[in-house]
Amino acid sequence: MRKQLYFWIGALVLGALLGILGIAWLDKLMTFVATVYTRLFQLLAVPTIVLAVITTLASFGSQGQTRRIFIRTVIYTLLTTFSAAAVGLLLYIIIAPGNLPMAGDAAAATTETVAAQLQTNAAPVSYYDHILSVIPNNVIRPFLEGNVLSLLLLAVAIGIGISRLPQSERKDVLVRGIQGLQELLFLLIRCLIWTLPLGIVAFSAQLSAQMSAGIVLDSLGKYVAVIIGGNIIQFFVVLPLFLLSRGINPLKALASMSPAVLMALFTKSSAATLPVTMESAEERMGVSPQVSRFVLPICTTVNMNGCAAFILVTSLFVMQNSGMELSWTTMLLWLFIAVFSAIGNAGVPMGCYFLTLSLMSGIGCEVGIMGIILPIFIVIDMIETAENVWSDSCVCAMTDRDMKRKQ
User: Which of 67, 87, 216, 236 maximizes the CB count within 10 A of its CB?
Assistant: First the structure.
């Protein structure tokens, strides 16, 4: 993983140097490569969300654990995830990142297209119409239109439906088939990530060649300050306060879970870190295996503190740069969308990035901005994954404490 990180940093530096050269044909080539990667991200984003939500909810019905453990896991997950997103929203309002300049001809053309669409659809849309548009009238249309909210609604319905089916051979075949599709999708994502240095070179070259450095650094600097600042506050302040409220020493808990947190930092995958997280929780923190082996696999998918904050802050940043007005109603609505979208997000590298890209594409925003964020996301992903695993550990510890008090 360290070798991969060096490759990504090298690609970032190389792209910046190529952009500084100002060679016309090279700039066009970098724009082409960046566009290809953006389209590939969009291709994989939607099925990633749908399959992750279905498999997570489908597994609930097959778990033989107590109802009390599950209820506490859900409550603590929602509380910590909402708090992470709320901290991100508060910092976004306080720091107020500015807008980026145009990212060249390709971005300008896309922005003009979006502006034309916004002008065409300038008639006000009522909340009734908005809610009605989320409810699909057939299975295919949400996929064709990229309507992420409709797809989430379908995925939740299918996942819960599968979990309620009586145990049978047909149900096992159905679940294994969906899990097989998810594994195939993860394989494609890993292949894309393996070639990602090429995409980072292209995006970095675009950033270096086509933008005013002062404005970009000011805007992106504030955006990064919101993301990383929110993660630090959630990691070192909010989550320890949750632990203290349940009578748990946060310093001892963090020391016990440090192997898992450090592994998450470098692997950028809470799913890959799960075995270490479970071993640390049981052997070092003293959590009951009955609790850890139920809570942690669920939390790996549904308890995404860093992801919820990233989705919210990045969505607001992209919408703002696409010319959309960020009213209080809009920001609060996206607070809930970010939290519930993060639930079911795949615990794999760049899972939050794919999810956010899909959401922005679904509402017609300038997704090219996501390419500008991509080089920075390398570091953001490391920090957020460490926060996610630490949050999983906190939910597990609090649930275990509650269960031991009930005995």
Answer: 87
